[in-house]
Amino acid sequence: MAPTRPAPRFDAFHNRRTVTICLSSGAEFNKIRADEAVRLGLCITPHNTIFPRQADILGVCATTFHRQAITLKFTALVVKELASPIVAGSSFLEENALTINFAQRQIGFPDGTTSHYPPTLQQLQPQKQHTPSK
Description:
Distance between the termini: 31 Å
Mean pLDDT: 86
Oligomer: single chain
Number of strands: 10
Helix content: under 10%
Number of helices: 2
């Protein structure tokens, strides 16, 4: 299996808890998995007042994350299942003045600092057992 290209991601903090924020520049909405919202102690507004026809959306929440001296605003849909605990879309990038340089695998922050993310995620492949010939 070929290695896969990971989404840009970086670590931040929420009330002294580390969170990994996965960036998705093509995502219209920010999302957070319900178990992560609970772990962080976020207040979840029930979904029936916001998106009544979307069964996978449990509600919405808002909070801030911190990375060094930077405060990052985050408002998201709370969902049952999500590949990463936190997926931040284009609205998060725009509101917090973040940039992604895909060629350099670099995330730019409004204070001028940058964070690099790895070029690939290595997939574990089963090793073929080599039997010595007689």
